[in-house]
Specification:
Length: about 525
């Protein structure tokens, strides 16, 4: 008679392939799934009856920023409680390494708006392996799969210098990238709206993408423009895949700003056509109509050149202010222009470490309370006061577009969030707590935008395949026992923009590498997570 460490008995098994679910048992020994099917005669040290519940592979979040807060939240509380057992980190060009001695302060300034204030980062690492060995000292609960951020990589070689890379600089970047990929990074991310990503031209990206391709790794991109020039920007991402053979992931895909709503039909068609030509392009989406980023994204990137101190000095200059005001009003900049596209009303401060009293306030309200004859001047004065240190929520998307992208077979569903916990306070984007239960509650059960099996595929096997994560993302013999048990009738997100620190409902058990880490809404404090290598 077969013996297991643990048997999950009588569940509805949604195995991650997208195939119809079936009822059965799962036998687990050590960190692996050893058997799937009818295991009536088998024995185990622990048998968990999961009748009436769904068991699926642990959710894999292909796009988040857990690395920016993992030292403060080694349990990845807001993630593990929604069933995310693996996070792909280092996204949007914002990885924690490589770091060079020459530009250590620059990279700190670059990541500062994103890093959790409570996380005790020492900044004494130079590459991803060294960074993650700090992270794993006290153990982690989730598995983390690192990407190299192109922004971080460029800063390591030439700081915030906006000029094109010289041959020597290019070679230095390639060498650092190769070293990280050699060490198991899953690919490279870019954030082409954030300096220095925004300074990076097509040729430079192409050379780096070629190296990524030679490792069969992923190029994941926050494209140059998600608003007026979203179609062109998707074309740019695909062109990299076409020229260098790299596998492309268009991150948190959307058409931002009312005038652009509906363009996702065109961008998805462009991706389908590119796939037919042999380009491995896919996209991902978070299930909310508002996004969140740093407040510096409201200004053209040239205003940010040279880092924070230079930016603040520049914004005091009346001539610079006048030039910016004209550009923003006319909408003549080629970059995203949220003030013009969305208006002050639809931009709400999420958090500001330096001025927490503004959390939850719209820019319209901040400006009107301060008075003054010119809203943009008033905004800039306020921006200087808070030193540009705040994150904001942008109500930028159309619900119909979100549904269209979620329903499309080429999209994975992701959170794009930072990690948090109820004790953190502040107002993070609710996606930090609710993304995956929201997909399975709102979009699968309530609105029937897609089947349960398809919903589960988009957060398990699809991201695993795309990132090249082996042995995870499916319920199959020999795979790692990363599993989520949930109630398909009650699973739902509870976090809202006004009251975000709320765990979801309906997640019963979460297992990572064969160990139970969450049971009935309780985080057990077990830390079986691993740093994964490609
Ligand atoms: Zn991004």
């Amino acid at each position: 008679m077969k013996n297991f460490d643990r048997i999950l008995r009588n569940g509805r098994i949604c195995d991650g392939t997208g195939n119809p679910s079936f009822h059965g048992d799962i036998g687990i020994s050590g960190d692996r799934i050893e058997a799937v099917g009818r295991l009536d005669a088998a024995q185990a040290a622990e048998i968990v009856d999961i009748s009436g519940l769904v068991v699926s592979p642990g959710f894999i979040d292909l796009h988040n920023h857990v690395d920016h807060g993992i030292l403060a939240y080694p349990d990845a509380d807001s993630y593990i409680m929604q069933g995310v057992t693996t996070s792909v980190v280092g996204n949007c060009g914002l990885s924690m390494a490589p770091v060079s001695a020459a530009y250590r302060e620059d990279v700190r300034g670059y990541l500062k708006p994103f890093l959790d204030k409570k996380a005790p980062y020492s900044w004494d690492w130079s590459n991803l392996s060294e960074f993650f060995s700090c992270v794993t000292k006290s153990g982690i609960t989730q598995n983390l799969a690192p990407l190299v951020g192109q922004g971080t990589l460029r800063i390591a070689v030439k700081g915030f210098d906006p000029t094109p890379a010289t041959d020597d600089e290019m070679n230095a970047m390639k060498e650092l990238l190769r070293a990280e990929l050699e060490n198991g990074a899953f690919g490279m991310s870019s954030g082409l709206v954030y300096p220095p990503g925004s300074y990076t031209g097509a040729e430079e990206l192409r050379e780096l993408a070629r190296i990524v391709a030679s490792y069969g790794a992923l190029y994941s991109t926050h494209i140059r423009n998600e608003a007026d020039r979203v179609i062109k920007s998707v074309d740019e991402a695909i062109a990299l895949g076409e020229a260098g053979g790299v596998s492309v992931q268009v991150s948190h895909h959307k058409a931002a700003g009312r005038g652009n709503w509906g363009k996702v039909h065109a961008t998805l068609r462009i991706m389908e056509e590119a796939r037919a030509r042999g380009v491995d392009v896919t996209c991902d989406v978070y299930p909310y109509i508002a996004g969140m980023t740093t407040i510096t994204s409201l200004l053209p990137s040239r205003a940010l050149e040279g880092g924070t101190a230079k930016m603040l000095a520049r914004l005091k200059d009346p001539e610079v202010r006048k030039g910016l005001a004209e550009e923003l009003h006319q909408g003549s900049i080629g970059e995203e222009n949220w003030i013009k596209t969305l208006g002050w009303d639809n931009i709400v401060i999420a958090e500001s470490g330096i001025a927490p009293q503004y959390a939850g306030m719209s820019l319209a309200r901040i400006i009107s309370e301060r008075g003054g004859s010119d809203p943009f001047e008033t905004f800039l004065d306020w921006f200087l006061e808070i030193r540009g240190e705040a994150t904001m929520i942008l109500s930028e998307m159309d619900e119909a577009d979100v549904r269209t992208v979620i329903a499309h077979p080429l999209s994975a569903v992701i959170s794009d969030s930072w990690v948090t916990a109820p004790s953190a306070g502040g107002r993070p984007h609710p996606r930090a707590y609710g993304t995956f239960p929201r997909l399975l509650g709102k979009y699968v059960r309530e609105e029937k935008v897609l089947s349960l099996e398809e919903g589960v595929r988009k957060i398990t096997s699809m991201p695993a395949r795309k990132a090249g994560i082996r042995g995870r993302g499916l319920i199959a013999e020999g795979f790692f026992a990363d599993l989520v048990v949930f109630d398909p009738e009650t699973i739902r997100d509870k976090a809202t923009f006004l009251d975000p620190h709320q765990y979801p409902e309906g997640i019963r058990h979460v297992l990572v590498n064969g160990q139970v880490v969450v049971t009935n809404n309780t985080l057990l404090g077990v830390r079986p997570g691993k740093i994964l290598r490609k």
